[in-house]
Amino acid sequence: MEFNKEEISLCKQVAEKHRKPIKYGDWYWSKSHNKPLIAIAGGFKANDQKHFGVFKIWTISDSLEFLRERCKDHVLLIHEEGLDDDDEEWYLWFDEYKETQQWDKGKTPLEACLKVVLAVLEEE
Asked: Structural domain of residue 78, as residue ranges?
């Protein structure tokens, strides 16, 4: 799996506010290797991540699971807009009580989801 610089930056910002345990098979960023790695043994507890200089790289599934827990009354929709790949942008929408709002956009679906996770964390 490949992650762009913006996705990694957003994951780092999320980790500064909320850390999830890194489990077997999860992607994480290692400061010592300066790149994404996949956890092949035990992983890292949330409290140990700062000590080892690592943070979890969230997936779309991680983001949507987090948002479903925190925003129970919303329906989440990921929407693609653009005529071709060069100007394609992704939007995450919240549909609450039949009132649809655009929350944020990104160049990838993961970027859009992570920006909303950050917005929810900042509101808390």
From this structure: 61-123
